[in-house]
Amino acid sequence: MCFTISTTTTHTYTHHHTTHHITHHTHQKQGGRPKAAAAAAAIQAIFPAASTTAVDLTIPMPGHALTTDEEPTALTAAADLEALIVDHDAVFLLTDTREARWLPTMLAAKHNTLAITAGLAFDTFVVVRHGVPNTTPRLGCYFCNDVVAPQDSTRDRSLDQQCTVTRPGLAFAAAAVAGELCVNVVQHPMGVRAPHVGDSGGDALGAVPHMVRYVFVWRGGGGEG
Questions:
Q1: Residues 6 or more apart in contact with residue 136 via CB below 8 angstroms
Q2: Sorting pLDDT into bands at 50, 70 and 90, what band is 42?
Q3: What mean pLDDT comes out for the span 101-123?
Q4: Residue of 141, 144, 163, 182 marked active site
Q5: Angle at Cα 172 formed by Cα 169 and Cα 176, nearest 5°?
Q6: Tell me: the pLDDT tens digits for 121-160?
Q7: Which pLDDT score, from 0 to 100, does residue 76 have?
Q8: Is 141 noted as a catalytic residue in this protein?
């Protein structure tokens, strides 16, 4: 089992612990540990047989202008990202911003690589598996129903708007659904081209949905003793 963890954010911070449950408070010592390296080490601690590699990579993003001097670095990063996508069976898009997911989405579709996006809000999440070309019917991707093009979502925004404030535990649930969805797709005879199948069917492991949306609703109950 091989994992490559790539991140656009350099170091771990306190607010990451509710959304990145393989980081630890000790990773913040001496200025913080690179998130990719922290995640790779955590996976090794959980499952020593796993082969993990950390990659610090700045993904070129729509809406984030580049200077002439920055263009060569961005082209190199795009080439490195494409090589990683080609070299792996599945890609999980879990970046902080929507626009950071755009280029990996396009590259995954180009190379028929399974891409799964998990997006968190305060008390909701969505998990989507992206479609690939030459599939009938073709499943949409994370951006297919957007009414505006991806743009800079961090400019002039507060911290809670730049990096989602979410209920503790919601990231665990979203990660579990994303992992289960990946397993179901990989085990399906049609693989990444598996059609959307809801609760009424599927393969040996059950449903292979295109999208899973979750809304947290607190329902309190009482009892008398």
A1: none
A2: confident
A3: 91
A4: 163
A5: 145
A6: 888 889 999 989 888 788 888 888 777 778 877 777 666 6
A7: 93
A8: no
Domains, the chain, with CATH or none: 92-145+157-220 (3.40.50.720)
* pTM assigned to the model: 0.82
205-222: pLDDT as tens digits: 777 889 999 887 766 655
**Residues in contact with 209: Cβ distance below 8 Å, sequence separation at least 6, in sequence order:** 129, 181, 196, 197, 198
Q: Which residue has the higher pLDDT, 220 or 193?
A: 193
Cα separation values, 180 from 91, 102, 128, 173, 175, Å: 14, 23, 12, 11, 9
What are the structure tokens assigned to 155, written together?
């400019």
